[in-house]
Every structure is written in C-alpha cells, then in structure tokens.
Amino acid sequence: MQTERRIDVTVIGGGVIGITTAIYLELRGYDTAIYAEKVPFVDESSPEFATPYAAASIKPASVTFSGQERALSISQEIFGLFADAGSMGVRQQPHFVLYEEDRPDPGYADTVSGFRRISDIERYPHRPDATSVFGWQFDAFFAELPAYIARCYALYDSLGGAVHKRALTRDACRKLPGEVLVNCAGLGSKDLFDDPRPWMIYVGHQVIADGLPLIRTDCGELFSYNYMPNSDTISDGFTGEVYAYPRMDTVVLGGSRIPVSPSEEWKGHVPSASRRVGGVEVPSRIVELNNELLKTYAGVSIKEGNLTGRYGFRPVRDPDGHGVRIERTSLDDRPVVHNCGHGGAGVTLSWGSAAKASKLVGEAIEPDPAPLTVSREFAVAERLATRIRSNR
C-alpha cells in the first residue's frame, strides 16, 4: 500500500511563477504540492490571472527587481536547455526592438545572445511613412503558450508533485501542509499575506489574430518585435509601443500599459484612440500599426485574420520602490517565502526567481535530493537537476 507523500514545501499559486518554483524545488530535492484556485489554460481565464495573457518572450523587462540581471541570466540558461531539448515548447528566434528615433544600446546588450544594432531599414518591420528605424535585434527564447505551461505541469506530475485546486483565504493558508510555504499567488498575494509595499495593476490589451499564415522573416525564420513610432510623425492617439509575437497557432498583438489601482474597479476606458474587436475596446494602434508593420515587412495583413480582443492585469508590486517580492517572512512561526509581483515579466524571470526563492527555502529547511527518475520525454529534467543541485 502506497503511503501518502510527506510535503516539505507547499507552493501557493498555479501560474507560471508557481509551477516553475515548484519544479525547481522538486529538482533540488524537496517534496512539494501546489495549492491554486486555477490552472492556466485548463480553467476559465480571467483578467486577474496573468499567465494566460503572457506574450511569453524571454527578454529583458522593465520591472524593479534586486538581482534582475542574474535572474535573467539563469532563466535564459534554463530556457536554452529547453530549446535544445525540443520537448518543452520553447524555441529561439530573432527579436527586433525598433524605434523611429535613435537610442543608445540597452544595459542588457551583453546579457542576451546575438545582440547587434540594426542598419538597413528595409530589413526590418517599419511603417511605410518612416524614413529611418533604429534599434537592435537579438536571439530571444520564446515559450509557445499554452504548450509550454502544459509541459511544465506534465513534468511536475512526473516528478511526483501534486496539484490541489481550491480557493484560499489567509486562515486556510495556516492549515496547509509543509514546513515552508512559498507564496506565488500573484495579485492574490496581497489578500493572503501582509505586505508593507503597495501594489499596482497595469492593464494590458491584446488582439489575437487566428487563421493567418506563419509570419516569417525573408530568411524564413519566425520572429517577434517591439516597435515604438515617433510621436511627432504619427497621428495623435496612435502613439505608443506595439508588439507582435507569432505563435504556431496564432499571432499575439499588443500592447498597452494602463495604470489602475487595485482598489479601483477598472471600467474598460482606453485613454487613446480605440476600436472594438470582438466586443472588447482596445487601443486602435494594436490593429492599425501592427497591420502596417506586418504587411510592409512580411506581406501579411492581420485584418484578414479572425480577430479577438482581450485584456489582462499585470500585478506589479511597489513599481517605484522595492519591486518584485522575493523575501522570507513567517505565518504563525512557519517560514513563508514570497515570490510574486513580477507584472509582465513572469515568464522572463520565472526560473531566476525560482532559484532565488529556493535559496531562501534552503535557509529554513535542507533539501534531501534523491536520484532522479523520469520518462524519456522529460530527459531534459536530468540535465536541469544537475544544474540546480550544483548551485551553478
């Protein structure tokens, strides 16, 4: 008769931060369980649950995070393992960061792979009216959602992890098993645990374009981009950054970043030129500007696709101060490690954040690593466990 598994660490939250942290802890040698109200792409999406809205590129993001460069480096290394393995829904592709005004090299130039300044305007997405385009490109890892999240959950299951779906309250957290709790509850964190720092929500809009051919460079590669037009040369109301992330099943177009207090009820107002897409009000530039860029560069009109508008909430902790919360507190004398508040950088920083949170767990309870046995489809987990256990 099989005995019930003893739980060392309970992870609260089932988004990308929660499942990544749980896998990392399992591979380090802890027995874990996840308690979450929802599992992404399994349960019905809601704007408050950020993971299903991730564009899922692994590239530098604008969040405040102590040790962000190190976390990005760890994430890139692990996503590189996944891309090489070919079994986790991760690939590497060119990513363009484009402006109509010159910009200096970013601080992450030495962190990403294949960084280079762009030169010939015709070789990159650009507006037909643009006379010049500046910026850079690099080789970015890209997690194909929802396939990547599904593979993460399948890997976690193969490692013996258990997922319990239930809504949690602060009192319910007290009754959870485990010597340590790890809080990866995202926006729900502020209701479950005390936090002296403020939270902010940034509403992000997307348009999903189905039924289009795969969008490729002239060399036949899938690609993605962020594009910022010159506000002096574009119609008023259409200023602001847009992006396009082609997936195998669709094209994800964005974006917006509308600040809303968590105490407010957001009523859908878009403070710029807008249009309705599938009954959802979205910034017009997401459709119009991206259509210009992709039609000029790749010969694909997104207006020929089946368009769906949507919006999601990026929960950002203390954006003007301490930022992402990775620290240890306690609940009734039980250690609680917090790993939350990543905003739109959850996928990008997921593995680096998991490494940092795991170190804090290790200060409270030592892991007990055992030989790893996984099926051939998850052979990459053996290489990942070697990396994690060597503390590289």
UniProtKB/TrEMBL annotation:
Keywords: FAD, Flavoprotein, Oxidoreductase, Plasmid
Record keyword Oxidoreductase present: yes
Gene Ontology biological-process entries: D-amino acid catabolic process
Segments forming domain FAD dependent oxidoreductase: 8-356
UniProt GO cellular component terms: cytoplasm
Cofactor(s) named in the record: FAD
Any one GO molecular function term: D-amino-acid oxidase activity
Gene3D superfamilies: D-Amino Acid Oxidase, subunit A, domain 2, NAD(P)-binding Rossmann-like Domain
InterPro entries: DAO, FAD-dep_OxRdtase
Pfam families: DAO
Family of this protein: Belongs to the DAMOX/DASOX family.
Name assigned to this protein: FAD dependent oxidoreductase domain-containing protein
